[in-house]
Design brief:
Length: 564
């Protein structure tokens, strides 16, 4: 059996589509190494002297975690440095939709939103242990989050246009008399000085103050000077808005194009699971001066999986911590996970015991082609393909009509004069003239003729055959076209001898005649026949005639009768 080029093309395309659909999940995933990397900065945290490096070069560490530490955890955290910076928007850009992002200078930029100290202070709990404040800045770390020491400097902060600053403990911290001093490795404000915003006069911000003409006006190096009886900003200093921390926002890793994290970790200990957490920085809710304001998302990793080999953790398993949601103004708005700017990745333990971990490798894993993308691509391809085939056929028909060649048959020519229902109705009209003869005639090798000559030739051949049968058997009921190249003939008052004679006459006439004036086709037919008595049902008689035709088609160009 021969097939057209278009049929073969459809088959090949359908096979390729099936292979794409089935094979897409088996494509090798996209992997990106997060650790070890030149940009990775590992560090440990937890109770002093109980969290130590075993081999820093191999990122191997030990944590002896006891129940006496309460909710305080021990763990390891990874951050990144020397990444491509994200530009901060200038002060002229407004974040209209409140998502923390805008567009400036042909690229995305972050709109920095400083969180007021009053709301920040109220958002964090008070430290239960005074020694939680290691550096004496009034802030500590307990229960896995930032806390403020009640008697520390967090209760002695003053808010200015530039941010929150502590009052100086000693007045001689301000040698130049500009109201600013330097204590505990940070700037401080001398209470009651010209820089104290609680005085009954407007405060001067770095955005409003002029630049100093000489850096020597800032002897203490706090970024502020004194000229012309007013404060001025030292260009490039600590409070210069063009060189302020808001222009160097935290830079992280964009994980939105990936689906999972793969960990290569060697673990020793009795913990059933390790908590893995991510922190995402978004200026819509986070402040770079408050590390705990970054969104906290965590998931658990079973240690049994780590011992078995590389363990994969889907990003969909991460959830936003409830304690973090309570500290933002709109928890429902920010309740979804975010992975577009991950600034920290950490591990910690919450089960007592001795834990040893060696972090060998961390990879980001993503699908090369997602199943959804494959489905959309295949749907789009087949819609376009069907549209092209349909358009091509319409254009071909119009061109053939315009050229006057190979004109398709008209509707009257192509449509069979009768169908199977008409055949049965015709029988019921003449069934009283018994017996009735039924002949089935079919063209031999019709599919071969159709492949070589086309559908239009077969349709015209159908019409010519119908006309020939009508001419030869004027006393019969008009022949019924059952299918392409197949006809049924009813002969009232016939017998088997007459049926055999009519069948042979039709077979001989068709074999001797030439069809289609242009192609001059020579064809043959096979004929099957039977008699329908008054006790027969029409369906049974037609089945006998079909069987006789089938026997004749085995030899081709012959006739065969079926007795009652």
């Amino acid at each position: 059996m021969k097939y057209s080029a278009l049929t073969l093309l459809k088959f090949v395309l359908a096979l390729l589509s099936l292979l794409m659909l089935v094979g897409a999940p088996f494509l090798p995933p996209i992997t990106t190494t997060l650790h070890p990397s030149a940009n990775t900065v590992p560090s440990l945290y937890g109770p002093a002297d109980l969290v130590t490096w075993l081999d820093r070069s191999q990122h191997s560490w030990r944590c002896e975690y006891g129940p006496e530490f309460g909710d305080e955890h021990c763990g390891m955290v990874l951050s990144w440095e020397n990444l491509e910076p994200i530009a901060a928007c200038s002060r002229k850009v407004a974040d209209h939709d409140g998502d923390g992002w805008d567009w400036e200078n042909g690229r995305s930029c972050i709109v920095y939103r400083q969180i007021s100290t009053s709301s920040a202070n109220s958002a964090f709990p008070t430290c239960t242990q005074p020694d939680a404040d290691i550096d004496g800045d009034g802030w500590g770390w307990e229960n896995g989050s930032t806390c403020k020491v009640s008697d520390g400097k967090s209760d002695n902060l003053v808010t200015t246009a530039e941010g929150s600053w502590p009052y100086c403990a000693e007045s001689d911290s301000d040698p130049d008399g500009d109201g600013w001093g330097w204590e505990n490795e940070q700037s401080c404000i001398v209470r009651g000085s010209s820089a104290d915003p609680n005085l009954e006069r407007p405060s001067v911000s770095s955005a409003q103050a002029p630049y100093c003409s000489d850096a020597a006006t800032d002897p203490d190096g706090d970024g502020w000077g004194w000229e012309n009886n007013r404060s001025c900003v030292v260009s490039g200093g600590a409070v210069d808005k063009h060189n302020s921390p808001s222009d160097t926002l935290p830079i992280g890793i964009d994980m939105t194009g990936y689906q999972a994290l793969r960990f290569y970790i060697q673990y020793e200990g009795r913990a059933e699971f390790v908590r893995v957490y991510l922190r995402n920085f978004n200026p819509a809710y986070a402040d770079q001066q408050l590390p705990d304001s970054t969104k906290f998302m965590s998931a658990t990793l079973l240690t049994d999986n780590l011992k078995a080999g590389p363990a994969t953790l889907s990003l969909s398993n991460f959830n936003v911590a409830q304690w973090w949601l309570k500290r933002v103004d709109k928890p429902r708005l920010y309740g979804a996970t975010e992975f577009n700017n991950i600034v920290l990745l950490g591990f910690d333990y919450v089960e007592p015991g001795v834990h040893k971990m060696q972090l060998d490798k961390i990879e980001l894993v993503g699908e090369r082609i997602s199943q959804v993308t494959v489905l959309y691509a295949l749907c789009a391809f087949w819609v376009i393909f069907v549209a092209i085939i349909y358009s091509w056929r319409v254009i071909a028909v119009r061109l053939s009509r315009n050229s006057g060649t190979a004109t398709p048959p008209t509707t009257e020519q192509a449509t069979p004069r009768r169908n199977r229902t008409d055949l049965e109705l015709a029988y019921h009209v003449i069934q009283h003239v018994t017996p009735v003869g039924l002949l089935l005639l079919e063209v031999d090798h019709l599919q071969s003729i159709k492949q070589h000559c086309g559908s239009s030739i077969c349709e015209s051949l159908n019409t010519e055959l119908q006309d020939l049968i009508t001419e030869q058997q004027s006393d019969s009921i008009e022949p019924v076209s059952l299918d392409e190249g197949k006809f049924a003939i009813l002969l009232p008052g016939a017998n088997l001898a007459r049926l055999e004679l009519v069948a042979e006459s039709l077979r001989t006439e068709v074999a001797q005649r030439t069809f289609n004036k242009e192609l001059k086709l020579s064809i043959t037919v096979s004929v099957g026949f039977t008699l329908i008595s008054e006790h027969d049902s029409f369906i049974q008689a037609r089945q006998r005639a079909e069987w006789a035709l089938f026997q004749a088609m085995k030899t081709r160009n012959t006739i065969c009768g079926s007795p009652r």
